Amino acid sequence: MHVVIPYVVGALLFGLGVYGVLRRRNAILVLMAVELMLNAVNLILITADVSLRPGLTGVVIESWARPGSGVPAADTGTGGVLALFVIVLAAAEVGVGLAIILQYYRMRKAVVVDDVRLDAGEERVAG
């Protein structure tokens, strides 16, 4: 399989996620679009790790970057580790985002992003 295909699929997924963030009005659909963008980043990280690893044969990997002392440099999956961090970030984002959306829905009975006022807590003083 050509290495270009995952890069193109990742770029298309990221573009679709950006379109979803910019065009959707429902907050839950916006969160889904952000998740799509994060999954595209994961795909690109893993593909870059697999495709660029053979080109780094002469590069010495530092001792802190190796998970074990007997593991050769070709077996360390840096892209996989970074993808794992992105997955953890995505899980935290979903948890916090859904909690905020549910609380807003309980208060306003709607989750339309265009109607959210960011300065609703400030009091306006005339004078």
Automatic annotation (TrEMBL):
Quaternary context: NDH-1 is composed of 14 different subunits. Subunits NuoA, H, J, K, L, M, N constitute the membrane sector of the complex.
EC numbers: 7.1.1.-
Origin superkingdom: Bacteria
GO molecular function terms listed in the Swiss-Prot or TrEMBL record: NADH dehydrogenase (quinone) (non-electrogenic) activity; quinone binding
Keyword Cell membrane tagged: yes
Enzyme class name: translocase
GO annotation terms (biological process): ATP synthesis coupled electron transport
Entry keyword set: Cell membrane, Membrane, NAD, Quinone, Translocase, Transmembrane, Transmembrane helix, Transport
Family to which this protein belongs: Belongs to the complex I subunit 4L family.
Protein function: NDH-1 shuttles electrons from NADH, via FMN and iron-sulfur (Fe-S) centers, to quinones in the respiratory chain. The immediate electron acceptor for the enzyme in this species is believed to be a menaquinone. Couples the redox reaction to proton translocation (for every two electrons transferred, four hydrogen ions are translocated across the cytoplasmic membrane), and thus conserves the redox energy in a proton gradient.
Lineage: Bacteria, Bacillati, Actinomycetota, Actinomycetes, Micromonosporales
Keyword presence, Zinc-finger: no
PANTHER family: NADH-UBIQUINONE OXIDOREDUCTASE CHAIN 4L, NADH-UBIQUINONE OXIDOREDUCTASE SUBUNIT ND4L
HAMAP family linked to this entry: NDH1_NuoK (MF_01456)
Bilayer-spanning residue ranges: 6-22, 29-48, 81-102
The protein's name: NADH-quinone oxidoreductase subunit K
CC annotations in GO: NADH dehydrogenase complex; plasma membrane
Topology relative to the membrane: Multi-pass membrane protein
Cellular compartment(s): Cell membrane; Membrane
Catalytic function, reaction form: a quinone + NADH + 5 H(+)(in) = a quinol + NAD(+) + 4 H(+)(out)
